[in-house]
Amino acid sequence: MSSVSRRFLVLGLDGATFDLLDPLMASGELPFLARTAAAGLRAPLASVYPPKTIPAWYSFATGLDPGALGIFGFTEPDGGPGKSRLVQTYRPSEAIWDRLSRLGHSVGVVNFPMRAGHALNGFVLPGMLSDRPPTYPEGLRDEVERALGEPLIPELPPYREAHRAEWMALATRAVGQRARATEALIRAHHPDFLFVLFRETDRIQHQHWSELTGPPPKVGEDLRGFWREVDRALARIDAAFRAAVSPVATLIISDHGHGDARSDFFTNRWLEAEGFLRFRNGGIDRRRDLLSRLLVTLDRIPGGRRLLRPLADRLRSSPRIEALSTAVGGVATFEAVAPRIDWERTVAYSYPVPEGIYLNRYNSSLRPEAARAALDEIRRRLETFPGARIEVLSPAELYRGDRLENAPALLLRIDGLATEPRMDFSYPRPMLKDRPGYFYGTGVHRMDGILIASGVGIQPERRSEPFSLLDLAPTILSAMGAPIPEAMAGRSFADRFGTVEG
Question: What is the Rg, in whole angstroms, of the alpha carbon atoms belonging to the chain?
Answer without folding.
Answer: 23
